[in-house]
Amino acid sequence: MLFSDIRGFTSLAEGWDPEELISTMNAYFEEMTDVVFAHGGTLDKYMGDAVMAFWGAPLEQSDHARRACATALEMLRRLEALNRAWAEEGKPELECGIGIATGEMIVGNLGSRRRLSYTVVGDSVNLASRLEALNKTYGTRILLSENVVELAGGDFLVREIDRIQVRGKTRATRIFELLGTAGDAAALRTRVDRFERALRFYREGKFPEARELFSALAREEGGGVAAYYEKRCGERLGSPAA
Asked: Are 40 and 74 in contact (CB under 8 A)?
């Protein structure tokens, strides 16, 4: 299950001419839809500026998690190309966040006698939607659930960023940031190793050491999840309990 959403779209749209807005969104949806289809996905629906897609139905796909991850990375590449073209037209840059989760879902026609929609429902759908929204919190672009990494992680470069409590579950769920493919630059792998070391310090309560590493990473990455943890370290160090 994949959810994609444009960041701050409502405020951006307020300053656009309606015809220009529709033209821009149609171009965006055209590119994102092509990517979903190219990787064998099923487009569920558009929700405002959001895209909802899934794999594994109506035809079974054993590599559904890998397809979804590849789709997310390609979506970002296509959006970067669109932004370059739009910049020449004086349009603002768009950013999007993507959440991916996998698991058992109910799939089929849902609706009324007058209108049916082929869609999916279930906990994993809700989790994917929540992960998409959490990108705003962590300063990330693509977040994956733990089971997506278990199924497709060997093909991609990921890093664990947190553990979250999912409604109705007793065990915390590990969530990961998708950075690229397994063959991506060694520099990215080095940053993953350093981030994991900093996160280990953070979880062990070694906040000064963790903040130093997160601060360096935040400068290199222009913010992102490292900046999020740098701030959290500062909050812990500034509290009586730290």
From this structure: no
Q: Specify burial of residue 32 (Cβ count, 10 A radius: 0-12, 13-18, 19+).
A: buried
Sign of the four-CA dihedral 173, 184, 62, 116: positive
Nearest-angstrom CA–CA distance, 48 and 62: 31
3-state secondary structure of 35: helix
CB 169, CB 130: distance < 8 Å: no
- Given a contact cutoff of 8 angstroms between Cβ atoms, the answer to whether 45 and 119 are in contact is yes
Q: What is the pLDDT of residues 108-134, one digit of tens each?
A: 999 998 999 999 999 999 999 999 999
Question: What's the pTM value of the predicted model, to 2 decimals?
Answer: 0.93
What is residue 167's DSSP assignment? Answer: T
Q: How far apart are CA 57 and CA 41, in angstroms?
A: 8
Buried b (16+ CB within 10 A) or exposed e, 159-197: bbbbebebeeeeeebbbbbbbbeeeeeeeeeebbebbee
Helix, strand, coil share (%) of the chain residues, nearest 5:
50, 25, 25
pLDDT digits (tens, 9 = 90+) for 145-202: 999 999 996 889 999 999 998 776 668 899 999 999 988 777 788 889 999 999 999 9
Q: Contact at 8 Å (CB) between 41 and 55?
A: yes
The torsion region of residue 22 among left (phi > 0), alpha (psi -120 to 50) and beta comes to alpha
Please tell me the distance from the alpha carbon of residue 32 to that of residue 109, in angstroms, as a whole number: 24
